[in-house]
Amino acid sequence: MVTEIRGFTDPQKEEYIKKKFRDEEQASRIISHIKTSRSLHIMCHIPVFCWITATVLEDELKTREGGQLPKTLTEMYIHFLVVQAKVKKVKYDGGAETDPHWSPESRKMIESLGKLAFVQLQKGNLIFYESDLTECGIGIRAASVYSGVFTQIFKEERGLYQDKVFCFIHLSVQEFLAALHVHLTFINSGLNLLEEQQTTSKNSDTRESAEKLFYQSAVNKALQSPNGHLDLFLRFLLGLSLQTNQILLRGLLTQTGSSSQTNQETVQFIKEKLNETLSSEKTINLFHCLNELNDRSLVEEIQEYLRSGRLSRYKLSPAQWSALVFILLSSEKDLDVFDLKKYSASEEALLRLLPVVKASNKALISVPNLSETGCEGVSSVLRSQYSSLRELNLSINSLEDSGFKIFSAALESPHCRLETLRLNICNLSERSYETLSSILSSQSSSLKELDLGNNKLHDSAGKLLSIGLKSLNCKLNNLRLDHCNSLERICEAPFSVLNSQYSNLRGLDLSNNDLHDSKVNLLSVSVKGPHCKLETLSLSGCLITGEGCTYLASALSSNPSHLRELDLSYNHPGHSGMKLLSAGLKDPGWRLDTLRVEPAGVRWLRPGLRKYSCELTIDTNTVNTKLQLSDNNRKVTRVEEVQSYPDHPDRFDVCKQLLCRNGLTGRCYWEVEWRGDVYISVSYRRIRRKGGRDCVFGHNYQSWSLYCDYNGPCHVWHNNRQISISSSSSSSVSNRVAVYVDCPAGTLSFYRVSSDTLIHLHTFNTTFTEPLYPGFTVGHGSSVSLC
Known about the structure:
alpha/beta; 5 domains; cytoplasm; B30.2/SPRY domain-containing protein; nucleotide-binding
């Protein structure tokens, strides 16, 4: 059994502060200040730290005279220590608030507690017995006095056998005092407590080099810790090296140390460490250390790349990748969706950003030719008991059998809690379907939704998949098998699953498969069965006529039918089918709530994607003056002579491109032939017409493009990001490209045409917010023709 301990959520942090401060304005100021520092905001999920922060900021708002509120962890704990010293001075020593708060007695107490904190931190002890106190030169009576005076730092409790035990109020307080002790010892005596062979350096010539080695040894020691027990200690120690923080401890510190040059050398040393191979936890802590040293240069550099939208164009160093991980993991936004292509559609990016994948609820990972190394990286996230991942989208990856086998082992892990797996356009083999069947049959599998769209599903593969779907252990609720091409050759294997005693399927998508009425008949028999629990069925674009509607109506009218939603759009139900289904909606014996039949008509009975063919018309008001129209405005050629087109605000003035008149909002398909260098694109109407490269299709967020040259399709573009694609160079492949867009579904696909076969090149998955207009950019000596 695993017990998960959670701290404050963001709303709970604010609720706590509002309850602590009755003054709404003061509470609001404190909340606003905490939000300005990601370090403080993250730490405030710890209730004790939230209390410490509130205590310090309350005192600061009452007593400060100008100046900034504490922003770093070290500043906050220094102020907290000072507040406790003030309380002791006034409450126990009878002094005034204006008196110096560091008396010799207070200094001795803090120095003793610091030594205890450090010695026991090294041993991993959080609770201290009399023997531990004696080792550090503290008597049991003195410890009781300390706990009575510094009540908010150190406390006394009764152990199992009623003996006295002591502890700090929180581990972070122990870590801070331990760092303070190590710092004081070095500043006052030159002794480095972090070295195994401790040496003392007081010589002014060697002092600076000793300081440098002191902080570097602290970094190395923390990195060598197998469990990270010195991570927070290191952040405090480096924070204490700043002169500004040492000034805050004036009275406790009798002398200061560490120059700005030493601080810069420490910063540089940490940056060098970030270029080494470190765990994500250690890397993130080093960025917190840089924050304590007031150096945010690496983070700001990556933030600028992100703001510019050009991150994928840079070759990042390991330190820069680490900075990106740090930024994403400490982002105020919830780590809900991780989309790899926002950063770089490469395997290196995937492997570098695995900590972010692990912390996300949903991950979209599309990498051309994902290797076994990449598969193993993603699998390590799935196997982790600390992973937050619940939905994984691996669509548009050509997964080899060996790589898929690696995934399957992870998906069957008892720690894997993945609920949704999308494998759209993954070129799955028969062996992959066998592996999937094994996953679905696994007792430990948590999968509830599976997307296998745009993969060939032959008879044998369908039977293999059906075995897993019928398993007693299968928990699948939703299955997508759209665009699987060969479903018309399958017998009843996938359909019989619906009437299986153990089937939990509630949703089934068979859209864009050439089922015909015969397969709909087989499907209807299963829907009618006593064990079928199906609630949503999509048969959009499946070549169904009125005959198929009769079979479906029979299934829907049967008593056990649970079906509530049926999509028959892009079919030809005819008058009889429409009448039958519409009447059924009013029948109390049917449970159907939603029926979609539009668009409908005989034109949708054409096989494949060509049923969605649309006739494009070039908008002559958009054509650049270096583009010549011919063949009844269906061919565009790049020429050197300026064409005599009338002035128009919609005309592209610099870019050699044009748009079509057609505003696309549904499903549309068209083919074009090209020669030379062209961009085959879709764009929002509002794309800029005046300007250079940023107006080129695919080089902005308003358009999507496939670039083709003399050798064939090369890469796709969107928002100035390029993704390379592989394309057949066979002589049987024509210079013809097909484009298919499903605007409501948010998919845009490019295909190379070979006879009657479509070879998939790339699919964009996005959300289209406006109608799309086909467009073309034409290079020197090049042309493009509408087919």
